[in-house]
Amino acid sequence: MKRERAINAAVVLAMLVVPLWAWMADEPFILTLATKVAILALAGVGLNIALGLGGLVSFGHAAFFGIGGYAMGILASHVQSYTPLMEWPLLIEGSKSMPVIWVVAMMASGLAALVIGALSLRTSGVYFIMITLAFGQMLYYFAISWSAYGGEDGLSIYVRNGFPGLNTLDPVQFLLLCYAVLGVVLFGAARLARSPFGLALSAARQSAARVETVGIAPYRVRLVAFAISGAVTGLAGALYADLNRFVSPTMFSWHTSGEIMVFVILGGVARLFGPVAGAALYILLEHLLGGVSDYWQIWLGLLLLAVVLFARGGLIGTLAGREVAHD
Amino acid sequence: MTEVVLQTRGISKAFGAVQASTEISLDLRAGEIHALIGPNGAGKSTLIKQIAGNLAPDSGTVQFLGRDVTGLGTVARARMGLGRTFQISALAMEHTVLQNAVLGALGARGGVFRFFRDVMRNRELTEVAMQALERVGLQDQAATRTAELSHGQRRQLEVAVALTLGPRAFLMDEPMAGLGAEGSKHLTGLLDGLRAEAPILLVEHDMDAVFALADRISVLVYGRVIATGTGPEIRANAEVRQAYLGAEDAA
Predict the structure, then answer these.
(1) A89: cis peptide before it, omega within 30°?
(2) Nearest CA to B47 among B223, B234, B214?
(3) pLDDT reported for residue A212
(4) Quick check: A69 and A247 in contact, CB under 8 A?
(5) Which of B54, B57, B52, B56 is nearest to B28 (CA)?
(6) How far apart are CA B223 and CA B40, in angstroms?
(7) pLDDT tens digits along A57-112
(8) What is the pLDDT of residue B251?
(9) Helix (H) or strand (E) holding A140
(10) Nearest Cα to B221, choosing from B36, B14, B87?
(11) Which of A218, A51, A54 is closest to A122 using CA atoms?
């Protein structure tokens, strides 16, 4: 555990030093990349609760990422066009306030995860992977055909949403805001892993029969975990939309699900900082190799293959060695 | 001694044309170890699953603590205090020994849906867990990863987890399976002391253990209970000798 802590500290340090350098060297693009890492890491932290702790291989987390993104897009676009969200029976206006958008994004994606989970958690293994994929794709095609909100073209939000007391248009302030959100969620995820719920969830991953035999229903534990996981990924979706000031059906596509899963696997499944390291590595590779060739993902593919074959614990797991996870 | 804790009344179960259980009526009384023996394929596992709640019988009822639990699942029966151990250890192998025991204590006391407090710092749970580990002699292994335990120690841990439930009855599926003579003897001693706590329905292949421990023995052959009685009665039963013990006794 000590070594993993040291590695986590190194990851945090790198995440702070790189933007600090970029800020001093006046490289706003690097700041944007760091922000992107933080947001994608957040999406991965969400997935890691289901995948790492619960062993639920969800190939449909794009659904929650997209719902979070569209929550932001829909709320902000109504403000942008001066039209209320609905007038009857209640007058509901859109919002340009991040806290409001985040709450809506988390509630909507958490609720969607509850419904999708309730149906798909009745299956397991390959069927679970396929059914979550199917739900993700359903939402993808729904978003494409939803012409009220841009259909295939998506929605552009011209001004970034606000946060009380901050100028979110300043890259540094927005970066720090995203870091703060990631930090709070990481703290919560660490607590969750050690909580009674975390113990039951990870035990259910290892032996469902054991959990049943002590009088705990694995289905309910997994369902709640899936909802929490979806809500966190939804929050990341809302932030991602705000980073790009743009929402499109791509957020729902299965590529997105795959990418979020790649962050977790690259960094280390069930490791607290796994998704952070994974997202950072992914963006780093995209940036470095992408400059060399358009086909950089070939190298990503090879790296992923190497991780799966030789370094099961991902970046963090390999460096920290085999230990009792979440002890 | 006559209080019936767990009882099956005429339960039958068929898989297609195979009749796995036929009109099985058994009872487990307070303070006893009731062993269930029978040759391979006699339907012992099917019976255990129906008692534990994994399988619903086609007909007949299961009663636990005077309640008809036929319609309840494994989770509900565990919560009522049915402590089960498995033929093949079902433990959280990546967790420590203590974490497995704490999981049992957590299940029995409720409060799984708490997300913030460190469960291993919950005194109430860890104390119950440590007591159970002490009962089976695993207190020194509390911090060991379960995967690193020997086969026999895993068996002991299964019993410890069942103990954390504060069980009203134990359901043990071949606890001696795969244990050496030494381990078998150790576990026999442990089970001997448990019957005062809660009666044990013991499915076991190890005949030495069965005859050493059991107050009563039921013999299952082709899905039917052909005899129930004390050790000497079972040894003397002609039908049992022919169906099951015959070869061993003749030798």
Answers:
(1) yes
(2) B223
(3) 95
(4) yes
(5) B52
(6) 11
(7) 999 999 999 999 999 999 999 999 999 988 888 888 999 999 999 999 999 999 99
(8) 36
(9) helix A125-145
(10) B36
(11) A218
A42 token code pair: 């957040």
CATH of domain B1-81+167-251: 3.40.50.300
Separation of CA B50 from chain center: 13
In this predicted structure, the answer to whether residue A148 has a pLDDT above a threshold of 60 is yes
Domains in chain A, ordered, with CATH?
2-320 (1.10.3470)
Q: Are A247 and A122 in contact (CB under 8 A)?
A: no
> Which regions of chain B carry the CATH code 3.40.50.300?
1-81+167-251
Q: Considering only the C-alpha atoms of chain A, give the largest distance between any 2 of them, rounded to a whole number of Å.
A: 60
B96 touches chain A (CB under 8 A): yes
Above 90 in pLDDT, residue B208? no
**Contact B167/A at CB under 8 A:** no
ipTM of the complex: 0.92
Q: Cβ A191–B106 below 8 Å, yes or no?
A: no
Query: E strands of B76-215, at which residues?
Result: 82-85, 169-173, 200-203
> Which positions in chain A have a beta carbon within 8 angstroms of at least one beta carbon in chain B?
191-192, 194-200, 202-203, 206-207, 209-217, 221, 224, 324-325, 327
- Alpha-carbon distance of B108 to B153, in angstroms, equals 22
Q: Answer whether A207 sits within 8 Å of B102, measured CB to CB.
A: no
Mutate which of A214, A222, A326 to test chain B, going by most B C-beta atoms within 10 A?
Answer: A214
